[in-house]
Structures are given as structure tokens and as C-alpha cells.
Amino acid sequence: MYTQGNPKLWTGRIDSETDPKQFKHFQTVEFANLEKMKVSGDKTGVGMLGYAVDKGIELNKGRIGAKNGPDAIKQEFAKLPDLSECESLIDYGNVEHTDGELSSTQEEMAKLSAQVIKQHNQTFLIGGGHDIAYAQYLATRHVYPDASIGIINIDAHFDTRPDSKPTSGTMFRQILDHDDNTNYLVLGLAQGGNTRSLYDYANEKGIIYVYADELLQQVSPKIKDKVERFIHDHDTIMFTICMDVIDSAFAPGVSAPSVLGLYPHDVFDISKRVILSEKVSSISIAETNPHYDIDNHTSKLAANLIHHFLV
């Protein structure tokens, strides 16, 4: 179910009502209804769409609460200073799961996400469960039907489980098993978070992966080159971040906390190498769970990721 953006989330301290150099994001945001919007030919500004869904996490036997992630992140993002001066910043609201199959909600999210991708220079899709990535893929394939898609995922998990129904742990297997024109790169993998069968599947499918301890404190030239070559080899890049890749000391409010995860600056460092590419068609951030957060640390961190990614 689609719901429009909530202006009540977008509040903060006003430093000036007239000087744009002192504006925060809540002073520049606009709202629009995707169900009534006509896509124009020219891409402009930034669009945001939330995926207020944690049904996939529930089906994956995780701790629920991430459906409140999009609103919590938007609320924190609203308070940050508008430094990018982008042409426009539009909150399109959220997609929610009410009943029925998760796949139907993913398809609805995909349809609306495709509209945002066509309309904007940057598209941010905010979860909710990481099953948002399958909707992101469907949208990307719709917009770029013949393109080779490179999926870059900063995550502690492969999320390639062979479950019979879609969950927050199956989406990349769903993609790779049905689309030969996609490839998958995972950065920040937790050695203790993936079974041997998932490694076997990764080797079978040629999945490229880098462990979390290879990214700590400094991203080596070898890994930077690996990321840049992956981007070069594909027509368009679908970029996604699961907040559970970040160590729980910095991101306690996630669906599956990491005890040997990445530091936030490591995520910023490697992400900047991805974001600066013009091939990035969309960015998703998943698994922020406000129910388990401490002083909004994780929501603030996710909001700052988006803030730093604005170009």
C-alpha cells in the first residue's frame, strides 16, 4: 500500500527563514504523489521513497521493527544542513505491506521506484527490510531493460538463501538465478554470518566478495581497484547498504547486529568510490530498526549516509 510523505516528520531548528545558506533539509523538501505524477523527460534533483516493510525479516526469522526505519531516518535527515543545494528534494512517502504475499509489495515498490529513478538524478530507497533490494532490482531492470546490472552490496551477509518464498535473505539469489545479465559484489562480509552452502553458491555464480576485516580502518588500493573495475564492467550500478554491516557499537538498531562489523567511516570511504560514478541508478539503505536503537544512533547514521551521498 502506497502512502504519501508525512510533512510532520520534516521539522528542526530554524537558523534562518530567508538565507538559503542556513537552511536545513526540512526547509527545502517537497512532497509529491507518485500515483498522480507524470514522469518528465529530464532528470532533476533527488527523490526519496520509503519501504516501510519488515515482513521479509519476519519470514527470515529476524527481529521485526524495521518497518519504522524509513520515517525515523527521514526525521533525522530533515535536521541536517542543506549543503548540496540540489535542484529539488522530494519525499514521495512510503510503501507499506498490509496483507498478502511479500512479492506483491515488492512489485508495487518496484513500479513506484522506477518512476523515481526516471525522474531524478539521485534516487534513495529507504528500508525497511533488505528485501527492498529485490524491488530495487526490478525497478532497475524496468528502467534499463537491456543493460548489464552490477549490484554492489555493503553487507555482512550474502542474502542468497534458497528459501521457497521471498524473504529478506533471498533476494540476490532470486536475481542471479533468473537474470544472466547481472553480477554481484558484496563488501563487508562477516565470516560468522554465512554458511558453507552460501559460499558454494557464491563460487558457483562468480559472486565477488570482500570480508569485513579487509575493509577495517583503511580500504586497500587492491580493493578500491576491484570496486572500480566492477563499476567499469557494467552499464548501470544498483547500490545497496544493509546497516547490519556496521558494528553494533555504532549501529545497535538493526535487525541482525554485528559484533565484528565495519566502522562508519569505512562505509563512507568505500561508498564514496561507488556514489561518484554516474552509473549509479539508485541507492538503498536497509534494516534500520528503531525499536532496538539507542538515542537514535542508527537512524542518525543512516541519515548521515544519505546526507554525505548527495552529489
Task: Identify the notable features of this structure and list them briefly.
single chain; 311 residues; alpha/beta; 10 strands; 32% helix; globular
Detailed description of the structure:
By secondary structure, this protein is an alpha/beta fold. It is 32% helix and 19% strand. Helix 6 links the parallel strand 7 (182-189) and strand 8. The mean pLDDT is 96. It has helices at residues 55-59, 69-78, 102-119, 132-143, 171-178, 196-205, 221-232, 264-275, 297-309; strands at 2-3, 29-31, 46-52, 89-96, 122-127, 149-154, 182-189, 208-211, 236-242, 280-286. The two termini are 30 Å apart. The protein contains nine helices and ten strands. Strands 1, 2, 3, 4, 5, 6, 7, 8, 9 and 10 form a ten-stranded mixed beta sheet that branches. Pathway: Amino-acid degradation; L-histidine degradation into L-glutamate; L-glutamate from N-formimidoyl-L-glutamate (hydrolase route): step 1/1. Its cofactor is Mn(2+).
Q: Major β-sheet, in short?
A: 10 strands, mixed
Low-confidence stretches: none
Q: Helix content range of the residues, please?
A: 25-40%
Helical run tally:
9
C-alpha-based Rg, rounded: 18 Å
